[in-house]
Design brief:
Strand content of chain A: 25-35%
CATH superfamily of chain A: P-loop containing nucleotide triphosphate hydrolases
Helix content of chain A: 25-40%
Shape of chain B: elongated
Order of helices and strands of chain B: HHEHEHEHEEHEEHHHHHHHHH
Number of helices of chain B: 15
Number of strands of chain B: 7
Largest sheet of chain B: 5 strands, mixed
Largest sheet of chain A: 6 strands, mixed
Oligomer: heterodimer
Strand order of the largest sheet of chain A: 6-7-8-3-9-10
Number of helices of chain A: 8
Radius of gyration of chain B: 26 Å
Shape of chain A: globular
Number of strands of chain A: 10
Chain lengths: 238, 366
């Protein structure tokens, strides 16, 4: 487990009752790359991300994050985890939410800056429950960026986000990766997958294939990532 | 109005209950549990309050009345030495003692005046009535047997409180604590459940926050709220309602702090066993109602059927209520062993719940 990998998941198994959510998955994310976790609903993406951040204890196998074997509370101040639904306090204002999440990660000074990044300065005093879905998602993103994490775990960050905002989100992600932040993003939207440097295809809790979008297309013998994905997952279920 | 559409709503509601077995069970089981408890409490061979009898009368009347009292099922009599009476009231083994003084018979025969001394403990609601009733019964049968027109002129004295204490003084002391405990519990369980359901707890658990920090942070936050409420309730009770208080207000406040802390942690702990706010509210009949019935607020613990007394003895609210009554009605301070016990048990329970609250977070999220 070297520091070379921001995320090192080694042969992790996790069952919930009879359901094997993670079935011996091994996956490594390099420092500073955007890694896309691709898979249909229920394929184990969320469980994998929760295992990485230490919210799920694997039945077997190891997870290490930024060179620290998980679970490790101290390394979490370098990790930002954005959950699928915008997990915010609906009765607090945008700024109050941000100040709270900044304070628990020990980054009280960054609030104004991150408000600018997600373009919510004008709505800083608005109570979250009065915001539109897209704004809520931006606020949620701001809450994971506020402590300048070295590793960003994004669980379907653009679900329910309009195309324009989605483009903006991806611009942020690219800028951050360029500045050295590692990003692991799960999605089932193929046009997002194209924007990742490497992709991992996950289904039934297993990694079916891994590589750059071009490599994945080549492996499946098709020019279309969506087709490639369907082909590769079809092979697995045979 | 479309019958079809109305039927759809009705059907959907019933279907939802079918999927929520717990709510369904609660709807049908809780009333029976609560009613059985109440029935057993009142009719289940309630223990009669202990009453001491000291007969110093040389004549026959004292002895006759004493034996009539002994036969009464309303009280449980013990022969005592009048000098020990006060000690026994204080340690709680007796709720009252009756003395037939020297020359008691003479007074009856010569002046047709029956003047026993009745010493009441005075701080427990509901224990005085059976004592006075038993005495009344004994006198009535004595008067009927002797066919004399006697006047009843008891000398009643109170160890605590006095004839001026009314029901509000008894219940007020207990309710000051109960209101706080109940409201803080409900607010905490609902907020903590919201923290789970809106996903923010997940976020907190993926941050460098330690579980203990979450629980202690919650505790301080809600305790501050609870204490502001406690101040309000105290001022209103003492100055507007003029509930009797003989003790140190800071001690009352201290008990309220402990109760608020317990309630916060009970809320955090139980929020783990509820999936929705709806289910959280269901803890009220399960957790709060039995405590209200058994903690001595309405019926003194010493008069409960014996098996229920064992339950009362392990309920934290019993000690809190007892402590508050001791302070407010008896003017107890921390040098009283009884108050030390009450404060100690409530504090211990509070500590236990803090660990239970912290433990709860661990179980849900690895």
């Amino acid at each position: 487990m070297s520091e070379a990998f921001a995320v090192d998941v080694d042969n992790v198994v996790k069952s919930f009752g009879t359901l094997r959510a993670l079935d011996g998955i091994t996956l490594r994310v390099r420092q500073g790359e955007i890694y896309g976790l691709l898979g249909p609903n229920g394929s184990g993406k969320t469980t994998l991300i929760r295992a990485i951040v230490g919210l799920v204890a694997p039945d077997s196998g190891n997870v290490s994050v930024l060179g620290h074997s998980m679970p490790d509370l101290n390394i979490l101040s370098s990790v930002g985890y954005m959950t699928q639904a915008a997990a915010l306090y609906p009765d607090l204002s945008v700024e109050e939410n941000l100040r709270f999440f900044a304070a628990i990660s020990g980054a009280d000074g960054n609030v104004t800056e991150v408000l600018k990044t997600v373009e919510l300065e004008a709505r800083r005093k608005s109570v979250v429950s009065t915001l539109s879905g897209g704004m809520r998602q931006r606020c949620s993103l701001a809450c994971v960026l506020v402590h300048h994490p070295r590793l960003l775990l994004l669980d379907e960050p653009t679900v329910g986000v309009d195309p324009q905002l989605r483009v903006q989100f991806w611009e942020h992600f690219r800028d951050m990766a360029a500045a050295g932040t590692t990003i692991l993003v799960s999605s089932h939207v193929m046009d997002e997958a194209e924007r990742c440097q490497r992709l991992g295809l996950i289904r039934f809790g297993k990694l079916l294939g891994e590589g750059s979008p071009a490599e994945i297309r080549a492996a499946a013998g098709t020019n279309n990532l969506e087709e490639a994905f369907l082909k590769l997952s079809g092979r697995a279920s045979e | 109005m479309s019958a079809h559409r109305i039927a759809a709503i009705t059907r959907r509601l019933l279907q939802q209950f079918r999927h929520d077995r717990r709510t369904l069970a609660l709807l049908f089981v809780a009333p029976l549990v609560i009613l059985s408890l109440l029935g057993y409490l009142i009719r289940g061979g309630a223990s009669a309050p202990g009453v001491g009898i000291a007969n110093e009368d040389q004549g026959p009347v004292g002895a006759t009345l004493a034996s009539a009292l002994e036969k009464s099922i309303k009280i449980h009599t013990v022969i005592i030495n009048p000098a020990d009476g006060e000690t026994k009231l204080k340690d709680g083994s007796l709720v009252a003692y009756i003395v037939f003084p020297p020359g008691f018979s003479q007074l009856v025969i010569q002046q047709q005046v029956i003047a026993p001394e009745i010493h009441l403990e005075g701080s427990q609601p509901g224990t005085q009535a059976p004592v006075l009733q038993a005495l009344q019964d004994a006198l009535t049968s004595f008067a009927a047997a002797s066919q004399a027109a006697v006047k009843f002129q008891p000398n009643v004295s109170y160890l605590y409180g006095g004839p001026n204490l009314d029901q509000l003084d008894y219940f007020g002391a207990a309710f000051i604590g109960l209101i706080l405990f109940f409201l803080v519990f409900v607010v905490t369980i609902v907020s903590f459940l919201r923290e789970r359901s809106q996903g923010t707890l997940e976020r907190l658990m993926a941050s460098p926050l330690r579980r203990g920090e979450i629980v202690v942070g919650y505790m301080i936050g809600f305790t501050i709220l609870a204490l502001v409420q406690a101040v309000e309730v105290l001022i209103f009770s003492l100055y507007v309602l003029k509930v009797h208080n003989q003790g140190n207000v800071l001690l009352i406040f201290g008990f309220e702090v402990l109760m608020a802390l317990s309630a916060v942690n009970l809320g955090i702990f139980l929020s783990m066993f509820a999936r929705t706010e709806f289910q959280a509210v269901q803890f009220i009949p399960l957790v709060i109602v039995p405590q209200v019935l058994l903690s001595g607020i309405l019926f003194p613990v010493s008069t409960e059927p014996t098996p229920l007394q064992y339950i009362s003895d392990v309920l934290p609210l019993t000690y809190a209520v007892n402590g508050l009554r001791d302070v407010m009605l008896k003017g107890a301070d921390l040098t009283w062993p009884a108050l030390q016990l009450d404060a100690g048990v409530v504090a211990g329970f509070c500590l236990l719940l803090i660990f239970a609250g912290i433990g709860t977070l661990r179980r849900r999220i690895a």
